[in-house]
Amino acid sequence: MSPLIRRSLIALAIVALLAATVYWLTRPKPIAVVLKPVERGQVEASIVNTRAGTVEACQRTKLSTIIGGRIEILNVKEGDRVKKGQLLLKLWNDDQKAQQTLAEKQSALSSRRVTEACTAAASAEREAKRQAGLRAQGFVSEAREDVARTEAAVRQAACETARADVAQADARIAVTRVEQGRTALYAPFDGTVAKIVGELGEYSTPSPPGVPTPPAIDLIDESCLYVKAPMDEVDAPKIRVGLPVRVSLDALPKQPLKGTVKRVAPFVSAVEKQARTVDVEVDFESPADTQLLVGYSADVEIVLETRQNVLRVPTAALIEGKKAMVLNADGYLEARPLKIGIANWEHSEVLDGLKEGEHIVTSLEREGVKVGARATAEAPTDKK
């Protein structure tokens, strides 16, 4: 080999060595990633509501009088507990009371007329019988007997008419009582007065058809509560009455409550064209230790299926819902295809693609974490 070729080869070797040194010194540092071991445990298939649900009362009524009028009696205040049948509010109705008094007087008068008319009818009947006896003995004419019988029939008719007048008068009394009932509000069940619209002496107006008017009294039975929540129409076929539910309340974030599905609406609500939902009602499994309020916002998670002691990974660590990122032996990140079983927002069941004890990357949100990147474990592999 000539000296020129030898020198050229040495120069090339030096250049290659320098290039390798520069690359080694300037290459990107490995990205620190968090690894989590694949483990066994419980996995649930569940669905959640699309918008916030609401705590509702099993019984709630917004009461208004049938007619308008000035409030004469207001027996309750907001927050009062009331019993079924208790008088809550009454409008001025002295005119209706006067009508009832008049009807009662007319009924009494009609009763006296019954006594008068029926007594006369009884007397006429006796006279007709006496005339019939005399006619049989030949002492009076047939015409005389007919007159007596006609008189008895007329008197009997007058008696029946008088009795009908009494019935009519009693019906008029009943009408006046019904009219007075239109001015009063009574509690239809035991409950709590949530709100009152109107004060003593003010005029209360009922709601005309088609015109929303605040009710006079809003009554709630808070002894029986449930949650009503909208679920996506796509999930509706999966929901059945009796499925277990977890209820989370914004007001009580650390006190999830257990419940069961008690009703699934038989129709789809189209609040918005792009958001069609099915309302689901959830009963609480047992009374909550903490007092719940009607109107609390609530989220429901309906558990469709539960599997125990299966391989699982965090759902948030999956790529496109069917791949997991792993750190291979060469220190590079690669995507591992998986076969996924049931899943929820927390865990996904792994049917194939990973083994117990293998590790997956859970810090997918970090900058630079992608397939093919150099990486190193940030924490011990057994840290949870």
List keywords for this structure.
single chain, 384 residues, alpha+beta, conserved putative lor/sdh protein from methanococcus maripaludis s2 fold, Elongation Factor Tu (Ef-tu), domain 3, OB fold (Dihydrolipoamide Acetyltransferase, E2P), 4 domains, 6-stranded antiparallel β-barrel, 4-stranded antiparallel β-sheet, 3 helices, 23 strands, 28% helix, rod-shaped
Q: How would you characterize the overall build of this protein?
A:
The chain has 384 residues and is α+β, with helices and mostly antiparallel strands. It folds into 4 domains: 28-45 and 308-377, Beta Barrel (conserved putative lor/sdh protein from methanococcus maripaludis s2 fold), CATH 2.40.420; 48-60 and 223-306, Efflux pump adaptor protein, beta barrel domain (Elongation Factor Tu (Ef-tu), domain 3, Beta Barrel), CATH 2.40.30; 65-89 and 185-215, Beta Barrel (OB fold (Dihydrolipoamide Acetyltransferase, E2P)), CATH 2.40.50; 93-182. Helix content is 28%, strand content 38%. It is built from 3 helices and 23 strands. A 6-stranded antiparallel β-barrel has the order 4-11-15-13-12-16. The chain has a 4-stranded antiparallel beta sheet with strand order 8-7-5-10, with no helix packed on it. A hairpin with a 2-residue loop joins β14 and β15 (275-284).
